[in-house]
């Protein structure tokens, strides 16, 4: 196993985890791929292989779906009370919490993110999500409904039942937390799952699989099949015995998921890309706004679907804000995730490095200028310098397309209607930020933004109780909050005459 620095002593379980070929979890057993194939996962700080992982494909997905179906139809899961389900989900949360350091290290090694961030954001966020969803297991209710058909008397009520076998395909930017966003509500609702982690970051979901067993969640309820998107992911999305597919990833792949799901018209929920506007009025509290705007884009190296990647600043404050954000960017310490001094790690993969530097080149060709950053950092690992681009306009590729890296474009505005038009001039609608001391203006602007989340005088605030999802091509449905339970339940109307 290769790591750039060993500033932190690796937990024994982490060393164990990366020193053996990782198998997949199907029906409570850790098994090799049917093909016997494995694939490497890399340490993005060095570009070296971190571990080998069983490479799931169609046949493995078939096995996993069959296991999930059996667990759903006739296994102990289907007979379990909501209270028992909730208790097991809570137990899983406790186990994850107990292994916080281990998960943080796995996440940092596999994804590149700073260990310090994984410890305070990714792992506690995951624990919170499972605890919140554990509480929901006993609170999923139907209604009794007064109906008037034919003037007779009826007892009519609705039941909320689990949607069934769910395929869940997750991305690499918050590997563990995305697994919890998907598994938490599915388990609370009583569904059984086949989870496919991203090929770039399969390790934390596999370790989570071990804890799912330790928590006592019955065999087959959660199956974890690592593999590539075009093979394992596509097979899961198209599988005729999967009742629902939940996907988080790019808008491009989201459209493929929708097509694949059409075969059996499985339910689909999607959390996709973004190009979120972050709007600063001249009356904003700049000492708080500048670091806020900076973290809105640079948190997680810009690898957030809701990253505040389009900065719009009222003309009179433009220079000051751009200067401030550029100064913040230049202070960010880049390094391997395991180094305690690191504030920003490498991008997740060579592909992402090429993608982000490709966008920078395209921006420069169209006339954009970098006030800070603008290139790769070093020649080892996949680091990109935090970058602020000015001289940009609405038509440029860097303003229109999702870069998914530490790159923000800055554009001045004068008129609020023009600003709103520009902010909404995108195929996406995931999130937005508004920074001002004028509360009326903040709410007026928030109401006009076509986005699933609007943060005012803050950014990137997530909570398991707060729904998150996108307008337009940023997705279908809302994750978290009680809204997410609608994605994992079917409504059954039951009606009988009582007179
Ligand atoms: P990114 O472009 O950020 O890597 P993707 O949308 O490609 O994000 O990947 C998100 C998830 O979707 C990953 O788990 C990946 O394996 C999976 N995936 C990629 N292509 C497909 C596909 N054609 N069908 C199903 N899943 C896919």
Q: Biggest sheet: strands, sense, closure?
A: 7 strands, mixed
* N-to-C span: 73 Å
The kinds of small molecule bound in this structure are:
adenosine-5'-diphosphate
- Measured by DSSP, the beta-strand proportion falls in 15-25%
What is the number of E strands?
19
Kindly report the spatial arrangement of strands forming the biggest sheet.
Answer: 13-14-15-12-11-16-17
How would you state the average pLDDT, rounded? Answer: 97
Number of helices: 17
* Rg (CA only): 23 Å
Helix amount: 40-55%
In the predicted model, the low-confidence regions spanning at least 5 consecutive residues are 1-5
Structural class: alpha/beta
List the topology elements.
Layout: H1 12-19, E1 24-26, E2 29-31, E3 38-43, E4 48-54, H2 58-73, H3 76-79, H4 82-98, H5 100-111, H6 115-136, E5 154-162, E6 165-169, H7 175-189, E7 192-196, H8 203-215, E8 222-224, H9 229-238, E9 244-248, H10 251-261, E10 267-271, E11 277-280, H11 286-298, E12 310-314, H12 315-331, H13 350-365, E13 369-372, E14 387-390, H14 397-400, E15 407-413, H15 416-424, E16 431-435, H16 439-448, E17 453-456, E18 475-476, H17 484-487, E19 489-497
Helix pairs in contact: 2-9, 4-6, 4-7, 4-8, 5-6, 6-7, 11-12
Written description of the protein model:
It is a single chain. With 499 residues, this protein is an alpha/beta fold. Strands 13-14-15-12-11-16-17 form a seven-stranded mixed β-sheet, with helices on both faces. Strands 8-7-6-9-10-18 form a six-stranded mixed β-sheet, sandwiched between helices. Strands 1-2 form a two-stranded antiparallel ribbon.
């Amino acid at each position: 196993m290769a790591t750039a620095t060993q500033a932190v002593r690796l937990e024994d379980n982490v060393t164990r985890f990366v020193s053996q070929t990782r198998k997949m979890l199907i029906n409570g057993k850790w098994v090799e791929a049917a093909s016997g194939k494995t694939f490497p996962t890399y340490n993005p700080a060095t570009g070296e292989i971190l571990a080998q992982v069983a490479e799931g494909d169609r046949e493995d997905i078939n096995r996993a779906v069959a296991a999930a179906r059996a667990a759903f139809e006739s296994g102990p899961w289907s007979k379990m009370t909501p209270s028992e389900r909730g208790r097991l989900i809570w137990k899983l949360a406790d186990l994850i919490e107990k292994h916080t350091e281990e998960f943080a290290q796995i996440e940092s090694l596999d994804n590149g993110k700073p260990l310090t961030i994984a410890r305070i954001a990714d792992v506690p966020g995951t624990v919170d999500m499972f605890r919140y969803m554990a509480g929901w297991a006993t609170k999923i209710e139907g209604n009794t409904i007064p109906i008037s058909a034919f003037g007779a008397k009826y007892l009519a009520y609705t039941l909320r039942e689990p949607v069934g076998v769910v395929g869940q395909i997750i991305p690499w930017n918050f590997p563990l937390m995305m697994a919890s966003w998907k598994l938490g509500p599915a388990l609370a609702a009583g569904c059984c799952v086949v989870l496919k982690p991203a090929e770039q970051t399969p390790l934390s979901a596999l370790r989570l699989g071990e804890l799912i067993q330790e928590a006592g969640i019955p065999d087959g309820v959660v199956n974890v099949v690592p593999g590539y998107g075009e093979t394992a992911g596509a097979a899961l999305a198209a599988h005729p015995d999967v009742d629902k597919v939940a996907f988080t990833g790019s808008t491009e792949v989201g459209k493929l998921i929708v097509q694949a799901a059409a075969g059996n018209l499985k339910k689909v929920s999607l959390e996709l890309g973004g190009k979120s506007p972050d709007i600063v009025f001249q009356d904003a509290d700049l000492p708080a706004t500048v670091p806020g705007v900076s973290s809105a884009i640079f948190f997680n190296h810009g690898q957030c679907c809701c990253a505040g990647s389009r900065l719009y600043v009222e003309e009179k404050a433009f220079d000051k804000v751009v200067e401030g954000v550029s100064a913040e960017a230049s202070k960010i310490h880049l390094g391997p995730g395991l180094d305690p001094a690191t504030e920003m790690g490498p991008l997740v993969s060579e592909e992402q490095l090429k993608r982000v530097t490709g966008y920078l080149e395209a921006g420069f060709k169209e006339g954009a200028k970098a006030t800070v950053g603008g290139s790769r950092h070093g020649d080892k690992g996949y680091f990109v310098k935090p970058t602020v681009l000015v001289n940009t306009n609405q038509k440029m590729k860097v303003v229109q397309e999702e870069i998914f890296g530490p790159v923000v474009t800055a554009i001045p505005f004068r008129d609020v209607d023009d600003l709103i038009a520009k902010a909404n001039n995108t195929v996406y609608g995931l999130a937005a930020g508004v920074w001002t001391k004028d509360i009326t203006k903040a709410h007026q602007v928030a109401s006009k933004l076509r986005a699933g989340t609007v943060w005012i005088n803050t950014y990137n605030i997530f909570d398991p109780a707060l729904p998150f999802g996108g307008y337009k091509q940023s997705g279908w449905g809302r994750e978290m909050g009680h809204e997410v339970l609608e994605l994992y339940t079917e409504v059954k109307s039951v009606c009988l005459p009582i007179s």
